[in-house]
Write a structure and sequence with these properties.
alpha/beta, eight-stranded parallel β-sheet, 11 helices, 8 strands
Length: about 375
């Protein structure tokens, strides 16, 4: 395989499906792959498509307990039991058929991205189906069965990587990945997220959360107020992430690119537009080359405007990974818009770009948070 950017295609991941009434829709990933193809990004000379095998039990066991994996498989195969201790039941994590197989496919796709980057078969690789960052060692959480970013990081560590920087820009705190590497000095976790303790899921991610006794300062959190918009969010990203990652000097940069930060997302209250995704992609791409030998493993994540926002956001990220962002037309391919609008049952945007939003009072609060974060990190 050759190519600057690897695109992981795992169509079997469509079975990761909590049901038609659940906000996490598999169609968002399928539409992303379709838009990437409609834009011709998968056919660029510098792009390689990657297939992936399901994660093995040994792969999963690096971060999940055997009892949890066993319970996931049995519950997904319809066995009777009290699965609530493992996080399954009505609400966020309903039991669905073949949960283990679905989660293993997603985790295997993130391992596939990590493998090609670590073995220098691609500089960057993207698994849009991944980013399930809430799953804990022994339970599902927040729509997430297996924690594929953590599985991929653990695979990298097991295969010779010495230092991994993980940057999570989902609207929700990357609590699962932080928990799994809380006491691991070889992994730096950084999360920018909306934060309101006890009220906004998962309720963690305060800037006081800094890592375990053997890994002090290995966790960095930027807890932003509801209403934070493009300018303040980008200020948080540019102020904290490049310096922190640069000082850590990782072998690989791993990112979770949730786009539930969008102003129209139904499950959150940040106020980003696609401008933030375009600029964040630029920053992360540059950072991978400046601080991580060019190695960048990216996953998807949250995003509940599954047709209107997610495909555009993740296509912008992948265009940057493929070094094609500057040549990407702003207008979406009309045939894709027509197909996606039909699936969504509503007219969809026809451009990647969006109008800027008016400033919000929360932006000033966000800047005060940024100041507190930098005081903690660099007193």
């Amino acid at each position: 395989m050759s190519g600057r950017a690897g695109l992981v295609l795992a169509p079997e991941a469509r079975i990761y499906d909590h049901g038609p009434q659940h906000p996490l829709r598999p169609e968002r990933v399928l539409l992303t792959w379709d838009l990437i193809a409609a834009c011709g990004l998968d056919r660029l000379d510098d792009v390689a498509t990657i297939s992936a095998e399901p994660a093995s039990r040994a792969d999963l066991a690096r971060v999940h307990t055997a009892a949890f994996v066993d319970a996931t498989e049995r519950a997904g195969h319809g066995e009777d039991g009290d699965w609530s201790a493992f996080g399954y039941g009505p609400g966020d994590n309903p039991i669905f058929p073949n949960m283990h197989e679905a989660g293993a496919i997603v985790a295997g796709a993130s391992i596939g991205a990590a493998r090609v980057v670590w073995h220098s078969q691609a500089a960057h690789a993207f698994n849009a189906a991944g980013g399930l960052h809430h799953a804990m060692p022994a339970r599902a959480s927040g729509f997430c069965v297996y924690d594929d970013p953590a599985v991929a990081i653990a695979w990298l560590l097991a295969n010779g990587a010495q230092r991994i920087a993980y940057v999570d820009v989902d609207v929700h705190h990357g609590d699962g990945v932080q928990a799994m590497f809380w006491n691991e000095p070889r992994v730096l976790t950084i999360s920018l997220h909306e934060y309101e303790p006890y009220l906004f899921f998962p309720g963690t991610g305060d800037l006081s959360e800094r890592g375990g006794p053997d890994a002090p300062a290995s966790a960095i959190n930027v807890p932003l107020p509801a209403g934070t918009g493009d300018d303040a969010w980008l200020e948080a990203l540019t102020t904290v992430v490049p310096r922190a990652v640069g000082e850590f000097a990782p072998d690989v940069l791993v990112t979770q690119l949730g786009c539930d930060t969008h102003a129209t997302d139904p499950l959150a209250q940040l106020r980003l537009t696609t401008r933030s995704y375009r600029e964040a992609a630029r920053l992360l791409h540059r950072l991978a080359h400046e601080a991580a030998y060019g190695r960048w493993v990216a996953t998807g994540g949250g995003g509940y405007q599954w047709a209107r926002v997610v495909p555009r956001a993740w296509t912008l990220y992948f265009a940057e990974m493929a070094n094609a962002a500057e040549d990407l037309p702003d207008a979406l391919p009309p045939a894709w818009v027509e197909r996606a609008s039909g699936l969504a049952g509503e007219p969809l945007p026809t451009t990647f770009s969006e109008p800027a939003l008016e400033p919000h009072a929360a932006d000033d609060d966000a800047r005060r948070v940024i100041g507190r974060v930098t005081d903690v990190l660099w007193p």
